[in-house]
Amino acid sequence: MNRKFHIKKGDLVQVNAGVDKGKQGKVLEVITEKERAIVEGVNLCSKHTKPNATHPQGGIIKQEAAIHISNLNVIDPSTSKPTRIGRKEDEAGKLVRYAKKSGEILN
Questions:
Q1: What H or E segment, with its residue span, contains residue 36?
Q2: CA–CA dist 80, 102 (Å, integer)
Q3: The pLDDT value given to residue 86
Q4: What mean pLDDT do residues 54-60 have?
Q5: Which DSSP state fits 53?
Q6: How far apart are CA 32 and CA 35, in angstroms?
Q7: Residue 86 belongs to what H/E stretch?
Q8: Model confidence at 7, in pLDDT bands (50, 70, 90)?
Q9: Do β-strands 24-31 and 36-39 pair in parallel, antiparallel, or remain unpaired?
Q10: Any bridge partners for residue 87, and if so which?
Q11: 49 has which bridge partners?
């Protein structure tokens, strides 16, 4: 099941539903099998860890949990507001993503 999503790793997104509604962050990872994404600084949860090499003290660590892709909107680079994403062919015949509000092509 190879699906295309409206967001990619590295996109700046805004959360449009849930506890973190309105927060913005960069997409760190997209989990295609579960249709979820991990966004920097959004949907933080507490994880209890034993002492190990990376955290010699152990204790409680705050880390990002996955959030469903339907709850995210890409931020339009030209207007800095959330926008929907469309797909179209460019001059070379390659399928590219574009912001529906401004028409700007996203990389």
A1: strand 36-39
A2: 11
A3: 95
A4: 91
A5: S
A6: 5
A7: strand 85-89
A8: very high
A9: antiparallel
A10: 97
A11: 59
